[in-house]
Amino acid sequence: MASRDEVECWLTDMDGVLVHENQALPGAPELIRQWQDQGTEFLVLTNNSIFTPRDLSARLRWSGLEVPEERIWTSALATADFCASQMPNGSAFVIGEAGMTTALHEAGFIMTETAPDYVVVGETRNYSFEAITKAVRLILGGARFIVTNPDATGPSAEGVLPATGAIAAMIEKATGKQPYVVGKPNPMMFRSAMNRIGAHSENTGMIGDRMDTDVQAGIEAGLHTVLVMTGISDQAEIDKYPFRPSEVIAGVHELLHTEPYEVEI
After folding, report:
1. Selection from 233, 198, 202, 203 nearest residue 215 by Cα
2. How far apart are alpha carbons 219 and 214 in whole angstroms?
3. Which of 34, 142, 216, 265 has a CA 20 to 30 Å removed from the CA of 231?
4. Residue 205 half-sphere exposure toward CB, CA atoms < 13 A
């Protein structure tokens, strides 16, 4: 596991690390610019599978962060990458939004309700009882059950919302089948992200705000883990777990160079 001085590539969570309620957090725009100026390989990760990288890039721009779409890695992309590696040119029935269906299409998959290879459940605000019933019957008929991320709830301006894990729980209960979860805390998501940018665990760092997903998956993937305190974690939260991040910092502003640095041309 690398020390921070040895880190050459970075993976970073988005919400609670770079942005909070659609506002860039202190130091986030400068850190992204620093990585780009230095030619540092990096990806911004999110477990949210609703939006495509292009959508997310636009949303981050409104928040004051310039992150190109090719620098964004979602649980939808990781799920499509996993499914395509397991069954090239396969088929899927999807409960999810454009982020998930677009990723699968681009990975060569066909969307179908007839004997699909996979039932894929991602983040959605529009699921129906009919879709849940269809998913249950397809899984009982032999389709493999895949979930983009395990989060049971998600935030909104009005309060918590039921998220992917809650919807998947209904299907799991009805089928008696456990899904394979691709997103954090499965280190598979980090490995697929590192493959995307040609990074290796020995020289890659992960920045996150959650012990139970970001730090756990980062440790399991062999990464240098940095926990920021701008999200949901405090010292009491850290103390709940038997593992520790490589370092704890107040926010990403602490990762900025305070001295002039040379940019390789």
Report:
1. 233
2. 9
3. 34
4. 23
Q: Is the pLDDT of residue 46 over 50?
A: yes
Instruction: Kindly report, residue by residue over 4-30, the tens digit of the pLDDT.
Output: 888 999 999 999 999 988 899 999 999
The answer to whether residue 255 scores a pLDDT higher than 70 is: yes
Other Cβ atoms less than 10 A from the Cβ of 64: the count is: 14
Instruction: Give the count of beta carbons closer than 10 Å to the beta carbon of residue 62.
Output: 11
Q: 3-class SS at 188?
A: helix
Residues belonging to the active site: 13, 15
State the DSSP code for 15.
B
User: In Å, what is the CA distance from 204 to each residue of 41, 195, 207?
Assistant: 9, 12, 10
Nearest to 28 by CA among 253, 257, 260, 254: 253
Residue-wise pLDDT for 151-185, tens only, equals 888 777 788 889 999 999 999 999 999 999 999 99
Return the structure tokens found at 178: 């456990």
Is the pTM value of this prediction over 0.70?
yes
Of 151, 124, 155, whose CA–CA distance to 20 is shortest? Answer: 155
pLDDT of residue 4: 87
